[in-house]
Amino acid sequence: MGARQKAGNSLQDIAALVAHAHTYWARVYVTVNTLLHDDELPQAVRLIHELYDLGVDAVIIQDVGLLESGAPWVLPPIALIASTQMHNHTPERVAFLEEVGFDLDELASLRDLLVSMEDWETVEDSYKVDIILPIDSQEEAFSALLEVPELASWFWESFYSAYNVTDEGDAYVIYLFEQPYSGDATPYGWYAVDKATGAVTRIPDR
Q1: Residues 6 or more apart from 7 whose CB is under 8 A from it?
Q2: pLDDT, tens digit, 9 for 90 and up, residues 33-65
């Protein structure tokens, strides 16, 4: 579809990639970031359902028409990332994208040289999820962890930052690490997020 018509990644290839990546706690995002004709929306929604069923962690989209697809063309509960083609490099734009349904926002960062340090800090501060207790999802636990300035600074500034969340009864345990494209992961630390209070504590490495 659109600018991605000649993409050569089959669903079978993506399934194999997901299985391999998840072995190393890596996330797989699939780009569906192109503008669509109205008659292509059902096909695009069907594709996103197939990607969700394969275990893809998120899709990167550009066309907000996907958010307005009515039944039976409703998106699955997969994380949506706003493509940088949506010019998401101002606090106002980030707030808008968050309001219309994006779970993750692929912010135009300093690495893209699109904003100044002052502007980036404003954008970063603007993208925060309200913490509602008790914490009952991995996403909320990670958002609570990012309320700790030291951890948020490391996560946003590290080029290879990654994390893994596990549910361990009264708390979510989050492992922070750096995972370069090649080579072994470098641990940063293990943290527990209390489900009842949202408190974040450092725990012994595992």
Answers
A1: none
A2: 778 888 888 888 999 999 999 999 989 888 888
Q: All domains of the chain, ordered by start, with CATH?
A: 131-206 (3.10.450.170)
In this structure, the strands spanning 58-61 and 161-168 are: unpaired
Q: C-alpha distances in angstroms, 203 versus 142, 164, 174?
A: 15, 15, 10
Residue 105 CA from chain centroid, whole number: 7
Q: Give the pair of three-digit tokens for residue 170.
A: 């009264």
Residue 76 and residue 68 in contact, taking contact as beta carbons nearer than 8 Å = no
For the entire predicted model, the pTM comes to 0.52
**For 95-133, how does the pLDDT look when each residue is reduced to its tens digit (9 = 90+)?**
777 777 776 444 433 334 344 444 545 544 444 445 567
- Each as own residue / partner, the long-range contacts of residues 125-132 (CB below 8 Å, 24 or more positions apart, any chain) are 125/91, 126/91, 126/94, 126/95, 127/94, 127/98, 131/198
Sheet holding 200-203, edge to edge: 161-168, 171-178, 186-194, 200-203
